Amino acid sequence: MNSLSLDPKTPVRGRLAPSPTGHLHLGNAWSFLLCWLGVRSAGGRLVLRMEDIDPERSRPQFADDILRDLAWLGLDWDEGPDLGGPFAPYTQSERLERYAEVIDDLTRLGHTYPCYCTRKELKTMASAPHMEDVGPIYPGTCLGLGAAERREREAQGRRPSLRLHGKEEVHFRDLVHGQVQMGWAECGGDFPLRRSDGVIAYQLAVAVDDMDQCISLVVRGADILPCTPRQILLFRLLNAQAPQYAHVPLLLDHEGVRLAKRHQSCELRALREQGVSPKAIVGHLAYLAGLLPTSAPAAPVDIVDGFAWEKLPRNPVKLGTDVEMSLRGLS
Ligand code: GLU
Ligand code: ZN
């Protein structure tokens, strides 16, 4: 069982939340496996949620392939776009009206303001320490604009994004990192809920879905940690209880570069085509996570009992240079 204070009275509900912007690679497999293990070892249910609202990057074909790859790895879920469930729909692009409704509520409560800054202006603003993840710090340029100034900008043809106004420091306990405390500026400052082209921001959609789908445990990559205070603030403003968070370390290639789409040899479908078995992958990832003593083939269900948050490393984990070879050797 999980020893790190998951409330035994609350049924655990976790989610696998892929974005259909590419094929799954070992880095995705790693965080989804750890999520699955964390939730299942607590006797929890899993929701599969397809996060497809980024119109430039999402492709329906990737969504189908991701479901297939996850199932191939031996990861299952109880509710999702393919299975339905009590909180359907589980595809974000089918929930746009709900996001608009929440944005209206937040606006009525006075928590938002239109921002007319152009992309170019935003780019030149001060950089945050986690710039890659949260973007430049937004200094609140448009916060104090009066009605006349807003009209003037709209008359120039500027279409505003809508930002959430926050200022608090957020702290929370992470199951991997322990106590985390972050100031608002450190998280990037006031952030958009809706882009100027109308696209809903990831932060808003994720918080609304976690709330509506009664998610109690969020397990995801440490790259998202700087965004978590934004989501916790949204929960607070919406009078909802934030889930518990576990940000698992990132998996890096042997040179220390985060696994991404360009690592085509690390894509699950490439490994499958080379004859690598899903158990070889799962066993190797579980070994790197400190959950197995050696890299030996294993199915996710074989590892559930040995799972504990304390065993997971806190720092990024590197794949060896020989990972493909060793995976092939295990098949
Ligand atoms: N869909 C996001 C991604 O693939 C993950 C969101 C989350 O876990 O909160 O990066
Ligand atoms: Zn602005």
What's the helix-strand series? EHEHHEHHHEEEEHEHEEHHHEH
Describe the main β-sheet briefly: 3 strands, antiparallel
Q: Indicate the mean pLDDT.
A: 90
Name of the top-level CATH class of the largest domain: Alpha Beta
CATH topology-level name of the largest domain: Rossmann fold
Q: How many beta-strand runs?
A: 11
Return the domain count: 2
The small-molecule ligands in this entry are: glutamic acid, zinc ion
What low-confidence regions span 5 or more consecutive residues with pLDDT below 50?
none
The number of helical runs is: 12
The appropriate CATH architecture of the largest domain is: 3-Layer(aba) Sandwich
What oligomeric state best describes the polypeptide chains here?
single chain
Cα radius of gyration in angstroms: 21 Å
Beta content: 5-15%
Task: Name the CATH superfamily assignment of the largest domain.
Answer: HUPs
Distance between the termini: 30 Å
- Secondary-structure-derived class: alpha/beta
- Overall body shape: globular
